[in-house]
Specification:
Chain A: Residues 1-89 form the Ig-like domain. The structure holds 2 protein chains of 2 kinds. Chain A has a single domain (9-109), classed as Immunoglobulin-like, CATH 2.60.40. In chain A, 0% of the residues lie in helices and 45% in strands. Chain A is built from no helices and 9 strands. Chain A has strands at residues 9-12, 18-23, 35-39, 46-49, 63-68, 71-76, 85-93, 98-101, 105-109. In chain A, the strands form 2 sheets. In chain A, strands 1, 3, 4, 7, 8 and 9 form a 6-stranded mixed beta sheet that branches. In chain B, 0% of the residues lie in helices and 49% in strands. Chain B is built from no helices and 10 strands. In chain B, the strands form 2 sheets. Chain B has a 6-stranded mixed beta sheet, with no helix packed on it. Classes of the chains: A mainly beta, B mainly beta.
């Protein structure tokens, strides 16, 4: 059971928008920055969003992040088939003194 | 280019020891934390622990404390993850990751080292 809760799967059609939620508590998301990672099939994860809503160089602005209270959301607009991947949220948990991840969300672009 | 390059896949028997490596390049190795993340087959990501090569400050997840040892040799910009006695349940992909601070994000990720433990 992961400390952060994500939906197991989401789907949408090409060109549409999708959001992926990540729910935690005051010991993790509520008081720490959230990051998001994309794991394409058979590859290592890649940083998509850091510090709740910042994009690293090279990440298109179709990807966005937000945080409110103890929840965070990843948004992807203009969906492409190449966006099919597993997406993970992550943050620090001050009670555990450990980094924690969500269980991951599989995105299907129909 | 900032890169983390990990050692190759390993096949071991239960009870054997193992040390896998992660070599950093393209940045100041002693100025960033290096962490390890486990991904069991078909499962999600689990943070194992992290080390600051500058002073060898090391932290472990409660789930992995006592199960593995994380170390680093700053003279060759390499971090290590080791087991003294492997179990079948250690079969997984292991990624090393770079972080600017203890509580921060991870970027980049190494390509992963697949460890298979089977009799």
């Amino acid at each position: 059971q992961s400390v952060l809760t994500q939906p197991p799967s989401v789907s949408a059609a090409p060109g549409q928008k999708v959001t992926i939620s990540c729910s935690g508590s005051s010991s993790n998301i509520g008081n720490n920055y959230v990051s998001w990672y994309q794991q394409l099939p058979g590859t290592a994860p890649k940083l998509l969003i850091y510090d709740n809503n910042k994009r690293p160089s090279g990440i298109p602005d179709r990807f966005s992040g937000s945080k409110s209270g103890t929840s965070a959301t990843l948004g992807i607009t203009g969906l492409q088939t190449g966006d099919e991947a597993d997406y993970y949220c992550g943050t620090w948990d001050s009670s555990l003194s450990a980094a924690v991840f969500g269980g991951g969300t599989k995105l299907t672009v129909l | 280019e900032v890169q983390l390059v990990q050692s190759g896949a390993e096949v071991k028997k239960p009870g054997e020891s193992l040390k896998i490596s992660c070599k950093g390049s393209g940045y100041s190795f002693t100025s960033y934390w290096i962490g390890w993340v486990r991904q069991m087959p078909g499962k999600g990501l689990e943070w194992m622990g992290i080390i600051y090569p500058g002073d060898s400050d090391t932290r472990y997840s409660p789930s992995f404390q006592g199960q593995v040892t994380i170390s680093a040799d700053k003279s060759i910009s390499t971090a290590y993850l080791q087991w003294s006695s492997l179990k079948a349940s250690d079969t997984a992909m292991y990624y090393c990751v770079r972080s600017p601070a203890l509580t921060n994000w991870f970027d980049p990720w190494g390509q992963g080292t697949l460890v298979t433990v089977s009799s």
